[in-house]
Amino acid sequence: MPTSDPGTPVPAQSPTPSWQWPESVWRGHVEAVRAGRALTPARWPGGARAAVALSFDSDHETIPLRDGETSPGRLAQGEYGARVGAVRIRELLRRREVPATFFMPAVSALLHPDEARGYAEDGHEVAVHGWIHERNTLLAAEDERDLIRRALDTLTELTGSRPTGIRTPSWDFSDSTLGTILDLGFAYDSSLMADDEPYEVLADGRATGLVEIPVDWIRDDAPYFTMERYSSVRPHTRPRDVLEMWRDEFDEAYRSGGVFQLTLHPHVIGHRSRLVILRELLDHIGGHRDVWWATHAQLADAARAQLTGAPGEEGR
């Protein structure tokens, strides 16, 4: 993105308080990465009323490794995702004949190459999720680019297929993320939260052609079930309460003809009492015949088709 434009946002470390920013600065921050044209078709492929896109972030040991934590206990929490959670998830998806997208940090894939290849062999999509689940918003532009490129190359080599999608480890963009994603040829991103439905990403008001498949913490298992022994982070929600929320999210997506997108983690959802609610959720969704189950790449393709249609208003 431009760096010499008068309206370019000031760096986050600027000592100038935000209430003193001129309009060009605060408007520049807002417009740097923005939601553009909504990309929801009148009907999904096959005439389906709604689309369902399941995703799993196979982070495993990279969460502690990112922060330099190497204790066996912390690493074992992540290992559970590969040793137990991913196995159960693959079997559940196989039984339900449901496709999914697995966003996998490259280090996680290198630690568990058979798992990465297994996702692809099962017909699922494998997509980029950083190198070691780094905090990408804190990186210098060249470091972020190098890690994304290395992750892309690693997953391509392991699975035999070049990923077309990315989910940033931080679920956020640095000042250079969007430019890097576009330069490396990604077709879609799934890190931002400006809508319930897919949309085109704008860069400083300009259309990029990049499809955003938005996420949200509501539709993520980690906020409800994460446990950090030496911090205030504790599981605070009963699994069945989470099931009710996710079921309501799907029901409203179905009613409006939109997308139900869900983000899960094998080391989180893979535990017995939590996998039960995922099984029941899939059964609930499966009770609706006119639903299109799609990978994020397939969903992005269907959304991108709207860009070639008649022009419409950007956003909502």
From TrEMBL:
InterPro entries: Glyco_hydro/deAcase_b/a-brl, NODB_dom, PgdA-like. Residues 1-21 are annotated as: Disordered. The lineage of its organism: Bacteria, Bacillati, Actinomycetota, Actinomycetes, Kitasatosporales. It comes from the Bacteria. Pfam families: Polysacc_deac_1. This is Polysaccharide deacetylase. It comes from Streptomyces axinellae. Gene3D superfamilies: Glycoside hydrolase/deacetylase. Residues 70-316 form the NodB homology domain. Transmembrane segments: none annotated.
